What does this fold into?
Amino acid sequence: MTTHIGLKNYHSVQFFVRDLDRALEWHQKKFDFRPVAKSTSEYEKSQGARSVVLRGPGEMGWIFTQPTEEKSTAGRFLKHHPEGVGFLNFNVHDLQKTAAFLAERKAPFLFDIKSTTKGGTFSEVAIATSLGDTNFRFIEDTGYEGFAPGFETIADWNSVGGNRFGFTDIDHVTVNSRSMAGVAEFYKSILGFEQYWGIEFHTAKMGKDLGTGSGLESVVMWDKHSGIKFATNQPLEPYFNNSQIQIYIEDNGGTGVQHVALITDEIIPVIHGLREAGCQFLDAPSSYYRALPDRIAANKIGTIKESMEEIEKLGILVDGSNGKYLLQLFMKEMSTQFDQANAGPFFYEIIQRAGDPGFGDGNFKALFDSIEQEQVSLNRQEMRDRIDSLTL
Ligand SMILES: [Fe+2]
It folds into this structure.
């Protein structure tokens, strides 16, 4: 019996999009991800969709797929959802073992193991998940020539460059669901994940007393072998139906991936560059920064190496405790970035860790408190708009 699923790391993320050019242009211009491969015409015919792969964070592919036929996988997804994450793809150590592990746990396979050899061998298997219509694919690639079967090379992967902000990895992926227990159970019983922080039934409740609808409850599951982490949020009473989580679910047409957090070693130049490139981020009010020194002292965060002036100027959020901290910032939804509703409620988080293993939950209350101080000039809707993007 295989003792764990055998994940290595992320291979790629595949977005199903209505407008391929729009998505490609945005990710090339803002993130400097560059095209490396595209679907062959044969593959497009068989899949009913066309795809372009950008070289994303680290060694990851950032795949964008636009359906050419309604009955394709991407077409079916987009019939029920705006644009969003259709597949999370993982490299595994031994695909046979991973598939056996999943089969034993009654994972719902989308197809049996497929192997293609060109130079090396590319083997894959995929399952449906409890993350709405987002699927997981598991890949073992032993030197296959090219990105994947069905793709032709546009540019050499190793010399294409790009990624000027130096994103190295995905820190975590966050899913919104009306009930997080089912999603967490999927990670546990099908993938063999454990609860992060190792505390059974531990959940982080945030915003219950906010007096607005932005509350959420959250649980983080992880694969301790690969370090891959998933947060899952559910709406929190007493404003359940006004919760930002419920609003996401309505905008998304059900459970789905709310955000992907990208890791950087140096968040200041990244946010500076992304703002210059026209990315829109959640705004923190100046009162958040007025309260920050006291919060740093109260939580014994210690010395922040980065310039506090720059942090405030760029609107970066700080959280931590006991000599450890993280810096993070949430982008606005893709529908806001594009000013088009069909681009969907998915967004990116940018995160730099200085030892803190959390997800920035301290920012939730801090941001609310600071907004509350300004509430003389803000009505409740405005308050909610300003706190809405803050999440695990
Ligand atoms: Fe997050």
